[in-house]
Amino acid sequence: MRGDRLLSIMLYLQSHGQISAKELASKLEVSERTIYRDIEALSSIGVPVYAERGRNGGLSLIEGYETKLTGLDEFEIRALFVSPAEQILEDLGLNRNSERARNKLIASLPSISRENAKRVWNRIHVDISSWRAQQEKMNSFEVIKDAIWKENKLKIVYQHLNGKINEVITCPLGLVSKGNNWYYIASKENGDIRNYRISRIREAIILNEAFSRPLNFDLAQYWKSSTEAFIENLPSFDVSVEVKASLLPRLKFTGRFARIKEVGSQNKNGWVSVELSFDTEDEAKGYILGFADDIKIMKPIDLRDKIVKMAESVVALYRHEDRTT
């Protein structure tokens, strides 16, 4: 956010010639004290900003100084102007703001770079939604966003996977979007940081109590570490199978439970050895049974017997249905 504000200050100073700290603070919705800190930051990186005291004074750039996004190479422009995921911007209420910011950035580029930026925008579009996934209900999303920006404590009513519901007083630290889901990152009153899936938050109430963010907290780094720890602790059930060669392309794109660890070579009978990993044995049984005689289990051997019993149960069920209809 501060980087955006510094750029906005430079553009305001360039377009207005001279502007008061009070007016800048009003336009950017921050305090005058924040504006003066930002001016010091700009000066420290070589931007020639100076303040003129007096009734008609204000902040301005040295005459002749022009702020343009020059120095951006082709790949930096591509990175800057790749289309953001529209669903994320819509959830955050930033669709129009994003478009305005993009137009301002394009306008500030030199003519050659401006054309490159427009080409990037029309060549890459990011859509994070899956084909059939339904959007999760997030009744408390607006309240959570408000608490994050205000830095006020938030009481949430949270429903866990096992159905248990409890109330938690939290200190809002940020939001993370992963796939179609949003996660609320917050610290508890004892300092522990937790992740809460927003679709499971049944109610959120902003408390009239501020809090201090943890020093040097980095949301992106925290999420990366949290994700790595989650993956390391996931349960694992490994299965060695052989599949018909014709099934292999489909196997790579079927189901969300199976993870292909290794694919071997095709033997003389047309079967290919594959190492699969599942979270649980039940997931493995259901997945493998779904491919009927196109896949056979090599290890663990006892899994064969369990799938045979499942298959026999299915046959018995439908034979009974046929006799009674």
TrEMBL record:
Coiled coil: none annotated. The keyword Transcription applies. Gene3D superfamilies: Winged helix-like DNA-binding domain superfamily/Winged helix DNA-binding domain. One of its GO terms (molecular function) is DNA-binding transcription factor activity. Residues 2-57 form the HTH deoR-type domain. InterPro entries: CBASS_pafABC_assoc_protein, DeoR_HTH, HTH_11, PafC-like, WCX_dom, WH-like_DNA-bd_sf, WH_DNA-bd_sf, WYL_dom. Keywords: Transcription, Transcription regulation. PANTHER family: PROTEIN PAFC, PTHR34580. This is Transcriptional regulator. It comes from Ornithinibacillus bavariensis.
